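Lab notebook, design round three. We kept the backbone fixed and only want residue identities now. Task for the bench partner: fill in a sequence for the structure below.
Input structure tokens:
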């Protein structure tokens, strides 16, 4: 066992940290105030990421990516997590599910996405189907050799900037002992396809400027060439490519928790009440001890899950544990940091209230905490026949 980073990994961490501090931090306050990332800022971040050789660093070198391992990519995400989601979105990491593209789709979607020419968004969730994806209603039926799509998706992140969408749509139904479950197919849908509309979504307290949208399909016609993977094979591509994205949520939570913690630590060492620094009161110092212990625990849990993926070991439970623990840790650390700041923690003069608000969504998206607990316990109980 070796717990240190290699020289190359140290360099990755230092490069991305430097990028986040210089290219992202300076724009954060403006994005928070306006809820938007100006186009020129987005383009500058994208171009600098390309120049640095980090654009699509999660893709293999044979398609033009940087070929990072899961562990190295977790280190990148950990650093990016320190900065605003709205801004680091343009440090492009296209969905790696695009590796399921066939050769013709590679030319139209995968390669332009990796080159930073086209942005993607991923759409599964519907108003009546969140955790229960197989309960989705958005459907595709065969008509004249094409697929006719009707229905809607909501909460779709980054859809306002996306040029195309990876959309999971019901193409059939299986009768199971738990009732009907939809068969799902993944489709590639271009912005501007007739019958397909993207409209503004809801205003969220978390991650201002990282907007979610509503997608509507009204007799939208798609040819077979838009099917990603196999017809009715949407669950297989989802399982093959998407569960690793939970490592991203865990890594980002660790990065953001460290940034928040560093500020709270500094504040505890400076702020004086009753004639001494507040960090000298056990009520504060013990919180600091608990915070750093939890951050380190989440960090190791996350890196170990990424390492298992790189080794080709089963990692479903470990990834779920990392996502669960890191996101719940972030909630506790941001809340404790705000408490250490006292009243000023709630004011937008400091980023603490933002970290606290942003933390809330991490326990919900990419599978809620309850769904992660379900995955963890299922992996343990199933072999015992329960
Ligand atoms: C800001 C934001 C951005 C998002 N971005 C995207 C995106 O880009 N693409 C996309 O497809 N989706 C996206 N999502 C959707 C996100 O993944 C879902 O919100 C999430 O899966 C939960 O679904 P839901 O909100 O419908 O809650 P529900 O599934 O309705 O859950 C409600 C509550 O019931 C609990 N619950 C449900 N089932 C169980 C169970 N079996 N056992 C125990 N408890 C259960 C949940 O844990 C939760 O507490 C986004 C969501 C948000 C808020």
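Proposed sequence:
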């Amino acid at each position: 066992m070796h717990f240190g980073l290699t020289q190359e990994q140290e360099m990755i961490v230092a490069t991305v940290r430097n990028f986040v501090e210089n290219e992202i931090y300076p724009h954060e306050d403006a994005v928070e105030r306006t809820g938007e990332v100006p186009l020129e800022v987005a383009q500058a971040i994208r171009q600098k990421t390309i120049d640095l050789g980090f654009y699509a660093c999660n893709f293999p070198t044979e398609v033009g990516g940087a070929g990072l391992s899961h562990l190295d990519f977790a280190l990148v995400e950990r650093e990016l997590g320190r900065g605003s989601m709205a801004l680091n979105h343009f440090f492009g990491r296209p969905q790696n599910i695009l590796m399921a593209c066939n050769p013709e789709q590679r030319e139209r979607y995968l390669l332009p996405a990796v080159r930073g020419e086209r942005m993607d968004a991923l759409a599964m969730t519907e108003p009546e189907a969140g955790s229960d994806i197989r309960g989705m209603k958005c459907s595709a039926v065969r008509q004249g050799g094409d697929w006719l799509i009707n229905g809607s998706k909501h909460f779709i992140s980054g859809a306002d900037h996306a040029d195309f969408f990876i959309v999971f749509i019901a193409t059939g139904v299986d009768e199971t002992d738990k009732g009907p479950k939809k068969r799902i197919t993944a489709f590639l849908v271009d912005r501007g396809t007739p019958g397909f509309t993207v409209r503004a979504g809801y205003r969220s307290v978390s991650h201002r400027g990282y907007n979610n949208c509503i997608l509507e399909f009204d007799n939208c016609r798609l040819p077979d060439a838009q099917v990603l993977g196999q017809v009715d094979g949407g669950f297989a591509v989802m399982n093959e490519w998407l569960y690793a994205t939970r490592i991203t949520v865990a890594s980002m939570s660790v990065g953001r928790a460290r940034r928040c913690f560093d500020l709270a630590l500094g504040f505890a060492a400076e702020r004086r009440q009753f004639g001494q620094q507040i960090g000298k009161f056990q009520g504060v110092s013990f919180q600091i001890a608990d915070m750093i212990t939890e951050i380190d625990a989440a960090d190791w849990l996350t890196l170990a899950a990424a390492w298992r993926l790189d080794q080709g070991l089963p990692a479903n439970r470990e990834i779920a544990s990392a996502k669960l623990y890191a996101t719940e840790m972030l909630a506790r650390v941001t809340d404790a940091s705000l408490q250490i700041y006292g009243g000023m923690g709630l004011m937008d003069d400091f980023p603490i209230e933002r970290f606290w608000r942003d933390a809330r969504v991490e326990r919900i998206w990419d599978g809620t905490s309850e769904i992660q607990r379900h995955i963890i316990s299922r992996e343990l109980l199933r072999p015992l026949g329960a």
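Keep this in mind before ordering anything: The mean pLDDT is 97.
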